[in-house]
Amino acid sequence: MSKSEIIKLNMLGLPVIQTIDDFSLITHISNYTIFQLSKNSDNYYKTYDIPKKSGRPRQICQPSRKLKGFQSWILVNILDKTKVSSSCKGFEKKTSTLDNALPHKGANTILTIDLKDFFPTITSKQVFNVFKTLGYNNLISTIFTNICTYKGFLPQGSPCSPKLANLSAWMLDLRIQGYVGKRGINYTRYADDLSFSGLNPSNVVNIYPMIKTIVESEKFKINNSKTRVASSARAKIVTGLVISDEKIGIGKQKYKNVRAKIHHLTLPSEMGNVKLLNEVGGWLSYLNSVDKERLSKARKYINELHKKNPKSMIQYLVK
After folding, report:
1. pTM (2 decimals)?
2. Where would I find the Reverse transcriptase domain in this sequence (predicted)?
3. What's the distance, CA 2 to chain centroid?
């Protein structure tokens, strides 16, 4: 490792690791274990499929406890100390779908684009380049890459994958922002969801061919079936939130569904339904992060129902 690489790591506040001995010393894991996990990392995964909304299978790659512990160390001590692009709003601490939607408030037109197979599209080479860019030498970058990838791509199931995906998409964000910024168009990315908005409908629509070119040149793919354009005639939705000129929230229909779930907790047939209780609790937590106005309404509704049904499951939601 050159002197300049060591200086770079120190400036970024990252651990200086030049050899396997260094890695072993700092993690308290034997050289042999590090070597085995790096060389045979593919053998430390359990894979299974879950269906996507489209019905297509999504492969989940679940690392073993030992490998996941190693990945978590890399995430906490290295990856979490790095910054992503200003356009990136997903998978980052203290960010939510609301942060992704806010820049598009008040826009006349919103274009949303979905990246196809986001994690599997990112290769070992791209991950290696991330660690090299941070300042690590070829040996350590290779070890980190082997530990964080599965069969040559980012696995969906590793704690490192979201952050590595964001760092791998740094140049994608930079190029897109450079192109749309000078045209008065806002751009944000929440994981694989790209959102563009502006006051001039034709300006927003006309950027699509160049965005497609940039995406493909950065080795990503667009899911054409999920490309959407919303103007004044259609509801403007960004990462599940409905955007109007005045406010951003989950929308009337979703809130209506939440109210229905809350009401179900008062029914005698739902007594002991912990699954439903947890589901409603999850929705309340989500509202707290993205739609505090409707959270207040939901809390008021819960208190009203509790007065009428004090011994129902609703009692566990009262504050």
Report:
1. 0.88
2. 31-243
3. 34
